[in-house]
């Protein structure tokens, strides 16, 4: 008989992805993981810490049976009837590809211990709708596929109609929620690197959550600005995302800026609080009148509140212009604009990774936090890639910067 191994395959999806493109990416990814088909399932269970447990390695599965289903015994034709694809742990979609006429035969199998006959019938109806939707228009987006009936949609509060890009490019969800989604997809993958400090997506999301609760208690909410004056470490990224998750707008204050410029920015934007360490806050003398939130003390901070999620038109951050043509101006960027840029980065970065690297990308944050381009690498990270924070001493020294990029095997640098 045939023996095959269960292989892990990562496939990131966004509502704006075209189904046909996803199918091509899935095919390319499947070819890559098949190189590791000698990796036995029992070894995978052991490496995942599941040895001796009944936790399944996978849930619903798709089995592509791409072999000829025509049989002949001498001059006598025969008809093949596939009775079973083997034990089914959860749900299994079996796709039989026919070489005779180029068609497909698709079966849905279900474990009766996990699904009732009524549930399986519902899954069958939805699968048929999904396939028909795709067959009618392969170029449509994932988010626009309709596999629920109108009655089923009414049972899910807030679901509404299938997702389609809205006029003006309204983002599906804010950046901090995109981070949470990525943390659920790849919790153990490295998200942020700064020197010897590495945070996984799960660790980063947890720290963002904790600080967002403290900021909410300090008054952070939509329509409010929170200043951040931190050195270039992982905590800078945590604070940036936590301010947005609390619904407020992130305002970077560079401790190296002249005192009069910092004073103007604080007076003009009127932030409700300053996220900084005691040391960095001392460098921002004009901000001493602001309530201080020290991220190093968040774990001991009992006063937390539930953050208010921002809407598409709420401010995500405020960046001040250089003032080279006169008085510096605070430019407000809304969450919908940031979400549109994130969706673009997600598509472009995945295409680049698959075409040139076959893995996630390592992206360097070299721009100062007070420069609008500093958000770009963070968006790449939220799309599932690895963010490397380059310290001030290194990013200001061209030779040291090149050595750092080579040593850390950086793939992308924003200029």
What would you say about this model in short?
This protein is α/β, with parallel strands linked by helices and 415 residues long. The chain has helices spanning 19-33, 41-47, 117-136, 150-155, 175-185, 201-217, 234-245, 259-269, 278-283, 335-357, 375-382, 392-395, 398-407, and strands at 61-65, 70-73, 76-79, 91-97, 104-110, 190-194, 197-200, 225-228, 249-252, 273-275, 292-293, 315-320, 330-334, 362-365, 386-389, 412-413. Helix 5 (175-185) runs antiparallel to helix 6 (201-217) and helix 10 crosses helix 11.
Describe the structure in your own words.
The chain has 415 residues and is an alpha/beta fold. It folds into two domains: 19-155, Nonribosomal peptide synthetase, condensation domain (Chloramphenicol Acetyltransferase, 2-Layer Sandwich), CATH 3.30.559; 175-413, Rossmann fold (3-Layer(aba) Sandwich), CATH 3.40.50. Helices cover 36% and strands 17% of the residues. It contains 13 helices and 16 strands. The chain has a five-stranded mixed β-sheet. A four-stranded parallel β-sheet has the order 9-8-10-11, with helices on one face. A three-stranded mixed β-sheet has the order 1-4-5, covered by helices on one side. Helix 7 links the parallel strand 8 and strand 9 (249-252). Helix 5 runs antiparallel to helix 6 (201-217), helix 6 packs across helix 7 (234-245) and helix 10 crosses helix 11 (375-382). The longest helix has 23 residues, at 335-357.
